[in-house]
Amino acid sequence: MLDERRIIQLFLEALPENGSRLQPFFTTDAQTLEIGTARCLFTIDSFGEEDHFRTSDPYTLGWNLAAGTVSDIHACGGTVLHYAHSCTVANAWSEEYLSAMARGISDVITLCGARFLGGDTGRTECWQYTGVAIGRADREITRRGAQPGDRLYITGEIGSGNLEAALSLIDAAPVRLFRSTHPAMRFPVRNREARLIAHFASACMDTSDGLLRALTTISEINHTGYSAKDLPWHTPGCELLQQLGLPTELLMAGECGEYELLCTIPQSVEEEFLGAAEREGMVFHVIGMVTEAGHAELQEEDGTMDLSNCTLTARGATNHHDYVRRLTEYFMHKRHNSSVEGSR
Fold first, then answer.
1. Per-residue pLDDT of the chain (344 residues; tens, 9 = 90+)
2. What is the H or E stretch that residue 173 is in?
3. For the CA atoms of the chain, what is the radius of gyration?
4. 256: nearest Cα among 143, 153, 159
5. CATH number reported for the structural domain that contains residue 286 in this entry
6. pTM for this model (two decimals)
7. Whether residue 156 sits in one domain with residue 86
């Protein structure tokens, strides 16, 4: 089966080049375009049932679809100006459902200070949503620019998105109870944090595909490594995985991310960055450091995990259940080995 990158490459080989595009493909969350004398940020993102968003609350579904779309603009240090979408709704959705969903989308657009441009609508058995956002930044941040010694910071807790996926993929009594007693989570909208990141960060990427994928991608693009520690785990996710006997690391390694911003901050401006964040009432969690190439490790209380050989991807798996099974086996094995190493 073709992986996502190969599919993209096949299209890129056939489609005409765009001279207005300023960044190489894969090196930025949103593309920077130069149109006349103006520069803008552009992103497009699609969502569907394979993303495992809970659909029981239509307002939250709408919020999450829009928040997931604008996250790419924020990862570039940008401000969202315009928003559009193509929404194929499920046949089962009622007028009341769609009104609540639209309010969720609208509230994210309003929170960003943006305006809705328009879009396209259709109906089918399985819903599909594509969001488009256009923005600008005084200083565009891409995935390139991280250097060994830069600090790794993230804007929020890790694992809420993968917890939502677990609620869809795992059929067990603790999961059913959790699903019935906990509302669907809402992705953050980091428009305020984006402006601070634009001023201080050397690189940034959102965690839409999970923290591990973001760390790996920034390392590959910059020919660096990472050493992660003191991760701010999503507490409900940790509690549920503990009940299920599953490794906590699944919350960072799964590819249904939480849409936080992972940024690298040079040590020369770290103190100023933290001071500015405190004055603005923002919380950033330091989770490690950019290292020389060849390092990919997670430091935990019972030892250090070497993650340099973790090549599992959801898009490369036969199905998501098989992916979760293989990822679980990987981290169960790693936890055993790191505990043994840590006790020596």
1. 677 778 888 998 899 988 888 888 889 999 999 988 889 999 999 999 999 999 999 999 999 999 999 999 999 999 999 999 999 999 999 999 999 999 999 999 999 999 999 999 999 999 999 999 999 999 999 999 999 999 999 999 999 999 999 998 888 999 999 999 999 999 999 999 999 999 999 999 999 999 999 999 999 999 999 999 999 999 999 999 999 999 999 999 999 999 999 999 999 999 999 999 999 999 999 999 999 999 999 999 888 999 999 988 887 777 888 888 999 999 999 887 765 344 33
2. helix 173-181
3. 20
4. 159
5. 3.90.650.10
6. 0.94
7. no
Question: Residue 145 contacts by C-beta under 8 Å, 6 or more apart in sequence?
Answer: 201, 202, 203, 222, 264
Residue 60 resides in a domain:
yes
The verdict on 132 and 156 lying in the same domain is no
3-state secondary structure (DSSP) of residue 29: coil
Q: Which residues does 322 contact at the CB level (< 8 Å), separation at least 6?
A: none
Are the C-beta atoms of 203 and 270 separated by less than 8 Å? no
* Angle, alpha carbons 322-236-170 (nearest 5°): 25
| Residue 259 buriedness (CB in 10 A; 0-12 / 13-18 / 19+) | buried
Q: How many domains does the chain have?
A: 2
Range of the domain at 296: 151-342
Tell me the C-alpha distance between 294 and 227, whole Å.
11
Q: Indicate the residue type of 269.
A: V
**Residue type at 218?**
I
Structure tokens at 242: 């503990």
Q: How far is CA 300 from CA 150, 246, 262, 303, 324, in A?
A: 20, 16, 19, 5, 22
How far apart are the C-alpha atoms of 164 and 183, rounded to whole Å?
10
In a domain, 141, yes or no: no
